[in-house]
Write a structure and sequence with these properties.
It is built from twelve helices and 13 strands. It is globular, with a radius of gyration of 20 Å. The protein has helices at about 30-35, 95-120, 125-130, 160-165, 170-180, 190-215, 285-295, 305-315, 320-330, 340-350, 355-360, 375-389, and strands at about 25, 55-65, 70-75, 85-90, 135-140, 145-150, 155, 215-220, 225-230, 235-240, 245-250, 255, 265. α6 runs antiparallel to α12 (about 375-389). The chain starts with about 25 loop residues before the first strand and ends with a helix. It has two domains: about 20-155, Phosphorylase Kinase, domain 1; about 155-389, Transferase(Phosphotransferase) domain 1 (Transferase(Phosphotransferase), domain 1, Orthogonal Bundle). The protein is of the alpha+beta class and about 400 residues long. Residues about 1-35 have low confidence and may be disordered. A hairpin with a 2-residue loop joins β11 (about 245-250) and β12. InterPro entries: Kinase-like_dom_sf (IPR011009), Prot_kinase_dom (IPR000719), Protein_kinase_ATP_BS (IPR017441). Keywords: ATP-binding, Kinase, Nucleotide-binding, Serine/threonine-protein kinase, Transferase. GO terms for molecular function: ATP binding; protein serine/threonine kinase activity. It holds the Pfam family Pkinase.
Length: about 400
């Protein structure tokens, strides 16, 4: 479930997709009555708008998937008349039964999550949320159709940068320029640029995860397809809160968006526990974040097919231990070795090797051994200080 700019087709972002049904992690439950989502757990909308305040162009699809569609729209009343908008709705015309129930439930969760984020932003208590989460305008319903409205973000997702047909230097320069990181076009600086990109992306994502932790929220779908590179503000913005779970916000004795036996997630980015560990829930997103940092550092992991081959082996044969995997690459016992893996090691191990160990700690197999968002951000600040000193 997602949308962005420069193209959900054109301007909410290239390559965005609403979560596919196949991306819901399989669970053992088979009783369809138990699969029904309890809407009573989701509070009513806090920020309501009228869909009639927007012109929604149904011929301009910015993104679509199994659960819904995102359309290009524009606000036509004050305040902010003329604002470019992404309008997201459930595709009721082609869904029924459990699929429709899923779509409506996750839309309700996304609405609630954005309500919480916007309320925190408006209280001026968390600048990171304002800087690094897509701006939510509100929820509206008209003629039996529910809509979520967001300000469109100029730019592309990080996944779009990964999919660009460019060499390593061109990739590094394009992304560093979008994030306003000073760089030259000298090939000698390629590793240097990639290292600073890892630091920058890690910093902005972890700041956001710490803010989510304060809300008691786990995103559960942290991946490059949901990370927008805002080319106007020169920063990273997190999208798609429809998979969120509110661990510390019980309602009627249950956590909003959370069920211990099922949950939405992208199989490529979930940590080994697959479902939230109630003792260490916030470490879930940290693992997903670290996988994307590896894709920045290691050129051979940027294409999704190679990344999937790596992740499958990394989790199963190497217990998600980056040091163990690296050692097996060099002694020839790793089955899959991505192109230019050594480049990634140079990026992460340059200077004192602390950046490599940092990513390794974010990828620990057990959530009890994995860095929390707060601990990761503190560690990163020390590494950044040492590298830039």
């Amino acid at each position: 479930m997602a949308f962005a700019s420069t193209s959900w087709g054109t301007s909410w972002c290239p390559g965005w997709r609403i979560r596919r049904v196949s991306a819901v992690v399989p669970q053992p439950l088979r009783d369809l009555r138990l699969l029904q989502r309890d809407y009573s757990l989701v509070p009513p909308p806090r920020y309501k708008v009228s869909p009639l305040d927007f012109v929604i162009d149904r011929t301009r699809v910015l993104g679509s998937g199994s659960f819904g569609t995102v359309y290009e729209a524009k606000k036509v009343v004050a305040p902010e008349e003329g604002l470019e908008v992404a309008a997201k709705t459930v595709a009721k015309e082609r869904l029924q039964g459990v699929q429709l129930d899923d779509a409506l439930y996750y839309t309700a969760i996304e609405r609630y999550a954005n309500d919480q984020v916007r309320a925190t932003i408006e209280s001026n208590t968390d600048a990171a949320l304002a800087d690094h989460v897509a701006r939510y305008l509100g929820f509206g319903e008209h003629a039996g159709t529910e809509w979520l409205f967001f300000e469109r973000i100029p730019g592309s997702t990080l996944e779009t940068y990964f999919n660009s047909e460019t060499d390593d230097i061109a990739f590094a320069l394009a992304l560093s320029q979008a994030l306003n990181i000073n760089a030259t076009d000298s090939s000698e600086d390629g590793v240097h640029i990639l290292r600073h990109l890892v630091l920058r992306v890690a910093s902005e994502v972890l700041e956001t995860l710490v803010s989510f932790t304060r809300l008691g929220m786990v995103h559960r779908d942290m991946k490059p397809l949901n990370w927008m590179i805002d080319e106007q503000r020169r920063c990273l913005r997190v999208l798609d809160l429809g998979s969120a779970a509110f661990i510390s916000t019980p309602r009627y004795g249950a956590a909003i968006g959370y069920n211990a036996r099922w949950g939405p997630a992208d199989p490529d980015f979930v940590p080994p526990e697959r479902f939230l560990d109630p003792r260490f829930p916030y470490q879930f997103d940290v693992y997903s974040c670290a996988l994307s940092l590896l894709r920045i550092a290691v050129p051979g992991l940027r294409k999704i097919a190679s990344f999937r081959a790596f992740v499958e082996e990394f989790r199963i044969r190497h217990q998600s231990d980056l040091a163990l995997y690296a050692s097996r690459v060099f002694n020839g016992t790793a089955s899959f070795i991505p192109d230019k893996f050594v480049t990634g090691l140079v990026v992460l191990k340059a200077d004192d090797g602390r950046l490599f160990e940092f990513v390794r700690q974010m990828l620990r197999e057990s959530p009890s051994d994995r860095l929390s968002p707060e601990a990761a951000l503190v560690t990163l600040a020390k590494i950044h200080g040492a590298i830039t000193a």
